[in-house]
Amino acid sequence: MLKGLRFISVLMCLPLILSTTNAQAYSHVPPQSIPAFLEKIMASPALADPSMILIDESTGEVVFERNADSLRKPASVLKIVSASSALKYLDPNLQYRTSINLGKTKNTIVINGQYDPWISYSYLAAKKQHRTSLPFLTTKSLQMLRKINHKSARHLTIKYSGLYSRDIANFRAFYAMRGVSTTMKQVTAEQALAASGEELASGNSPTVATMLEWTLTWSDNLLAERFARLASRAAGNKFDDAGVAKTFTQMFNELGISDPKIQISDASGLSKNNRVSARTIAELLAKIRNESTYATVFKGLPVSGITGTLENRYITTAPQAVGLIHAKTGTLNGTMSLAGYVEAGDREYIFVTFADRIPKSTRAENLARVTLDKAIAKLASPIINLPKFQTTMIETSTAN
What we know:
alpha+beta; Beta-lactamase; D-tyrosyl-trna(Tyr) Deacylase, Chain: A
């Protein structure tokens, strides 16, 4: 009987023990208090009438919303849409190859490209990140040309396909730095292949999945733009902003997200003409969360206080939430956005917040960022595991 009373006493004391010993780690808003808490925070002047939605990931229940259907500037949160479209329409294991071949006519070389989105203009960066190195390609091709021709080339006609305009300009610049003038001629992929002789140099990109993970973690604007265009072409649309806008809507519809509220001017979120509702992004995050096709999105999202654009956030403002928030950040003048997933004990929430009406000043933006971080952090909590001595005590008492 005495042992039974001790067991009951232990059970009654567990909440007190946990709240006392882990007060800082588990200081979060309980589920029933979340709507009132968020209503108060979202009314803060620091966020200037934001748009927000919070959804219970397991049930799909909308826990809280404010201006959720309002069209707002998403900033770099739009990269979630770009990455998702790339994963839907491109093979995540695909690698892009760029080769430079000897041409079949005198003083001609051929660049066979596949629109590699991540050709590097830095040899060291390319080596570190396993990217195609433009300096390597130009240097190696000239070395091979000299070996074949037994003399240095002073002028080259370059036939090319599958290159972005920026890459074309950089190829010309790198050859010029090595004393070679060039005449660039764009051809089709078929024409480039037919004009190609011996291979002089080549390089492969990382996989699509690897590059998209980087895109999200470090908010790479160039990669986001290029991948959105590659996805657009793969989806049967144009290789431009109009095609990207059409592809995004096509993806939403195919995922079962009807009537997506979105207006697209670019794919990176840099344009202040982009508009999207918090509900549309939240529905996308809900659809892709447990789909293996889109696993790279969750993997690539910055983690609070640990990786990417969230690496230095939460550490001092809300240390209890470090490692519990996976979210894409977004910043423009007058805009602070955040969207992703937050761990909350035995559940997970999807959240999207666009504060795009804040004053255009560093002070106002910093205040909005801190306010937003603290609000999401108060929702976060790890799964509470009983300390070993408590588990043992309960098991012993039950046995007796």
